[in-house]
Every structure is written in C-alpha cells, then in structure tokens.
Amino acid sequence: MREKEYGIWQALTWADLRMMVERLACGLHQAGLRRGEHMIVIGANRPRLYATMLAVQAIGAIPIPLYQDAAAPECVFPINNAEVRFAFAEDQEQVDKLLEIRDECPQLSNIYFDDPRGLRNYAEPGLAAIDDLIAGGQAFAASHADFFTTAIDQIKPDDVGAMFFTSGTTGNPKGVVHTHNSLLNRAKAGADFDKLTHAEDVLAYLPPAWIGQNIFSYAQWLACGYVVNCPESAATVTIDLKEIGPTYYFAPPRVFEGLLTSVMIRMEDAGAIKRRMFQYFMSVAQRVGPNKMDGKSLGLKDAVLYGLGNFLVYGPLRNNLGMSRVRVAYTAGEAIGPDLFSFYRSIGINLKQLYGSTETAVFVCLQPDNEARADTVGVPCPGVEIKVAENGEILVKSPGLLKEYFKNPAATAEVLSADGWYHTSDAGFLDAHGHLKIIDRVKDVGRIKGGANDGAMFAPKYVENKLKFFPHIKEVVAYGDGREKVCVMINIDFDAVGNWAERRNLPYAGYTDLAQKPEVYQLIKECVEKVNADLSVDLLLAGSQVSRFLVLHKELDADDGELTRTNKVRRGFIAEKYDVLIDALYGGKTSQFIETQVKFEDGRTGSVSATLRIDDAKTFTPVKAAA
C-alpha cells in the first residue's frame, strides 16, 4: 500500500503489513474480541483501517465498515443491531461521533483511534490509541508465537467474512452478511475477466463502507496483490489521481460527471483558438474514437486526424484527468448517460459498465473489451446465471450472493428463493447479444394515466439520468407514475452554473438566488427540451417527456435525508417532504413558496426559504404517432 502524508507518498510492503496485522490481531484478542463477534471500522481509506479489518478477520471476528460521513444517530442502529463492543475510529471526528452515541450503545466498550490529533486530553473509559493496541499485541505475539497462524488456520471459506449495511431508501438499513468465499470468489472472477495482475495501481478514495470500494480496493487487492494508494484527504484526490496515474479505476457516474464538468468549465474559460481546437478534435473523437476503442479499423484520414487529436487534445486531457495510464475503468451504482459514456471512450479511456449490488458482492455482469455499450451493463460474469421473471424483474444465481440479512429472516426470504435465486428488484432484459439492459427499479417503473400518453411506460431513473448528463444539472427527481404527465425537480450544479453566470456578468448571492434567476431557468429549460426531443424517438419511453419543471432552492443532501450515503435519490422521502411543490407542479401553478429545514456540517439546523418559479417545457410528438 501507499499512503500520502504531508505531501509525501509512504510505502508499506506486504511483509510490513503482515507484521502490523499480526500485532493488531493479537492485541484485539488480548482486549477481548472473540470469534464471531463484530467490530466496526469507520474512517477514510488508510493502511491501518485496512490492517484492522484484516486483523479482525484473522481471528474469526467480522468487520463492519460504516460511512465516515454518516451523522452520529445513523451509527446507532448498526452498532446495536450487530451488538458491537469494539470500534476503530480514524480520528477525533469519528471518536466524537461514537462518544456522542455511547449512552444509546452501552455495550460499546472499546474505541481505538488512529490519528491522535485533538485527542490528547480525552479520558473516556475504553478509549485508546491503536498504537497501544499494536504494542500490546506485539508483547502477546512474543509469548504466543503460534497464536496468529493457528487462528487463521481455523477459518473456513464459508465462515462469515464481513458485513455491510445497505443505505436503504426506506426504513432501517439491513446488514448484508458475506462469507470469505462470496467476496473473494467475485473478486477473483472480476480480476480474471479483465486480466488484472499484481502490477495494477489503484486509488482508494471512495468510502470503505461502500461494497464497490471494498471489492476494488480490498477483496481484489488481496486476490491480485496489486498496489492500493490512499490519498491524503478528500480535498487532494484530484491531485493524487494525477500523481499516481492508476491503471485500474472505479467511480460512480457522479464522479465522471464531475470530472467532465470541470473540463468543460476550463474550456469555456480558455482562449478562442484553444476552444475551437478542442471543439474540432472532440467532434473527430466522437465520430472516430468509439470505433477505435472497440478495435475496429479506421480509414487513413480518420486515423491521421485522431492521431493528431491524441497528440494535441486527448492525450493532455487524459493526463489532466489523471487517466493517462488507465487500462480498465469501471462505473457502477447508477446508470451513466450515453453521451458521458461515449465522451470518455472517445478520448481513449477504456470506460466500461458493470452491474451488481451489495447483496451480490458487486460482480454480476461486466462488459468485455470491444463490447462496451452505453445502453447495457454487459454479459453475466463467470459463475453467474440470470433469468427474467414474468414481471420483468432480474433474478440472479451466483457464488457471490449474500448469506443472509443479519437478524432479518423475513427480508432474507423476500430476496432469496428456496432454490437459490436472488431477486434484484431491478427491471430489465437480456438483448439479442446476451447483454443485460436495465430499465429501472421494478417498483419505480410505472405508467402514465390519462391525457395523450395514457398507458405509456414511465421510468423515472432513465429520465433523471438523461437530464444529469448536462453539466449544468447535478440532481433530478422525476414523478409521473399514475399521473397524466411527467414533472421534475432539479438541482443545478452550483460550480458549473456559477461559472456560466459569471461569464455573462450575471450577479448572484448564493445557491438559492442563482437557482431562481430567469436566465438560469432558460438554460435548464433548453436542457429539458433536448431530453424531450431524444425521448420522442424512443418508442417505449416517448410518453415520459417532461411537461413541467422547477429548480429547487437547495441542494439535495444525505444529511437532510434526501439522498442515501451512496448519493441515491430517496424519491419517496422527497415526495413527502416537498409535497407542496409536487402539488404546485401538477396543479398548474407558476410559482410556489417553500421553507425547508436544513442541517449544517457542524450539526446546527437552520432553514432556507424561497418562492420557486415553475416552468412548462415543450414536448414533442412521438415518432410512432407521427408515422
């Protein structure tokens, strides 16, 4: 592993790591952690966090990574549900969080911290530095030389290896129980599929509590033996990405959207000659690049133009994004916009999609090289079977399936059939080439009722993702099931729209003010109408065109309950919270006042109020009807 500290990359060999893990394992055993017990780890990606997880597993206990940005009350249910006594906390922020809820979690007896800054005068019972745990473990190991290897030898592949709490959109999160085999089997399957070796470099910058990060930077790290690099902080990730130049990269669509938005902002600020050169060669890339990436032959003229574009634009752009060495890049978690997908592949980045979930240990479908398409998520991985139920739901059989939901047999029975099929709750189908295509969540796919589009299919996530491709739109919530038309609520991207406004000398006093500018509404309206034009030629989804929209007065936030910790929209919660806005959208109003309570980063609460404008958008006659 490598960890960046004080601007310098510090290396940790496998031998050093093994020694650290042994001492931690012995220290935890000496402190009272026993086989089958749970221990939470909460913090950013750090060698000692990874070593602690390995140490917990080495003595037969079960690590539970929690989201480091979760508010303290969000940690109560997982800790109590899993009867957790031991915790690893990265720093003062995480320690304070655990101490705040200790009265609600009386069994939480031992808290170990990594970074001691700010903790010198803390005198809480059971609070200790991980250095003390390591020192105690070293002494124990010296007098019990065989303990570590004996403990490991007792562990079987089908023993529970880790537990992940889903960031559910409704109710309490569920503890997804995985065995060592389910995690490592899928890690190995993904590695074999893309021919990963020990020579890969990976940047670990996403939350360790997210199964995607855990598979790519932990399970596959153990399966392949490649190098995992831990950035100095969230603020330095972009710089660290350029310095490391990973060969294997994974990010949700939101990250790729953010990178593209930053590129477009910089190009808008560039000189006229640079802008024209960028626009010309990007048009060449969009026409030629995907074919080149898919291994198809190019004509001499196109090959020369693309080569020149690679020298002048694409190569420097890949380098600026930190992706000059990327051999395989994956995106998952949400559908990615086709234009966004094509952009990265057109400039020579082998971006592909995968399909999976926490319950499937991520790898269900992967896209082979030369078969990456924006509208599918690939073919079933080795060992995976897929079938589609009568209601369109995708069912999966795989060695990577969860063992159970912890202490929740009813929920387990809902998703795991007696004959071993996992119900994904996603609607989709296998196309003629054997690639899986996802439409939406089964429960979210609806129908328009009444009006000109009566009976038409409505897939909210599909509409939302098409709108989110535009760099000026950050988040979208679409409604329309059981109604006669589709209406959406939009979050602008504050950085992108702010830059756009400044170049037009348009003054604004913060997000709320900027969001309600007439000029901004016109900008967003153009985006909505472009999406409507695209939808009009899709026979299945032409009825999902957006009729009315508004721009929200605040950004949707996980701390306010509007997003999950993995930044998925909690559509039902938002519908209840903003019911007055939905009523206004469907009631034909042109404006609506709203006041909303918000939570600040320091824990304080306040309110944001505004009178929101509501606009109509032009819809287009479906191609089928026109014919």
Q: Can you give a write-up of this model?
A:
Among the domains are: 2-155 and 194-250, ANL, N-terminal domain (Rossmann fold), CATH 3.40.50; 446-626, GMP Synthetase, Chain A, domain 3 (2-Layer Sandwich), CATH 3.30.300.30. The strands form 7 sheets. Strands 4-3-5-6-7 form a 5-stranded parallel β-sheet, sandwiched between helices. A 5-stranded mixed β-sheet has the order 12-13-14-15-16. The chain has 627 residues and is an alpha/beta fold. It is built from 21 helices and 28 strands. Helix 1 packs across helix 2 and helix 7 crosses helix 8 (211-224). Helix 13 (338-346) links the parallel strand 13 and strand 14 (351-355).
Total strands: 28
Overall mean pLDDT: 92
Helix content: 25-40%
Strand content: 15-25%
Q: Between the first and last Cα atoms, what is the distance in angstroms?
A: 60 Å
Identify the overall geometry: globular
Number of contiguous helices:
21
Describe the structure using short key phrases:
alpha/beta, Rossmann fold, GMP Synthetase, Chain A, domain 3, five-stranded parallel beta sheet
Quick recap of the structure?
This protein is an alpha/beta fold.
What topology does this entry show?
Elements: E1 2-5, E2 8-11, H1 14-31, E3 38-42, H2 47-58, E4 62-66, H3 72-81, E5 86-89, H4 92-100, E6 110-113, E7 127-129, H5 130-143, H6 147-153, E8 160-165, E9 175-179, H7 180-193, E10 201-203, H8 211-224, E11 227-230, H9 237-244, E12 248-250, H10 253-269, H11 272-293, H12 300-321, E13 328-331, H13 338-346, E14 351-355, E15 365-366, E16 379-380, E17 385-388, E18 393-397, E19 404-405, H14 409-415, E20 422-430, E21 436-441, E22 446-447, E23 457-458, H15 460-468, E24 473-479, E25 486-492, H16 494-503, H17 511-515, H18 518-535, E26 546-551, H19 571-577, H20 579-586, E27 591-599, E28 605-616, H21 623-626
Helix pairs in contact: 1-2, 1-5, 7-8, 10-16, 11-12, 11-13
